[in-house]
Design goal:
69 residues; alpha+beta
Length: 69
Amino acid sequence: MNIDLSGVNWFKSSHSSGQTDCVEVAWVEGGRVGVRDSKNPTGPALIFTPGGWDAFTAGVRDGEFDRPA
């Protein structure tokens, strides 16, 4: 699937404190969500469906992606 990302507004978390090693997020057409590496803004981006984004963010909140101890 090719989605034109040239006109979207990318933003960083307010928790990033201006750091350069961040991910950026954009709200994309059709309710999709784009995610990219802030150090490589012309590089590839992940595109989540609305349900996929909701599942991902719920997993983050629940600790599903925490490193093993």
